[in-house]
Amino acid sequence: QVQLVESGGGLVQPGGSLRLSCTASGRIFSIYSMGWFRQVPGKQRELVADMSTVGSTKYVNYTESVKGRFTLSSDNAKNMVYLQMNSLKPEDTAVYYCRVFASGFRGPPDDYWGQGTQVTVSP
Fold it and tell me: How many whole angstroms separate alpha carbon 120 and alpha carbon 46?
């Protein structure tokens, strides 16, 4: 029901910046949360940042290692979520996945994932 399209990954030098974008489309009744995970080969996928909306209030959580460097934002009218990544470090290198927790009409909410976009931080 839900499709996610990601963009913005690439190669950047340490200290540089990238901006990831994710657009959700399809038969969506309600989106409860949107965010980003990342994964490196041989390791478990981990949360980077996640945003939930209750009424008009947004709740954003970041993993400790990216606090102060990454910023999550959204454009609700377009069902889009962004991840601004500043002061990038080599340890940020990973495949980044957009995640949406959403429900269709008369169905339970479920997780939907993008295909992933590679972020490489290297001299």
Answer: 17
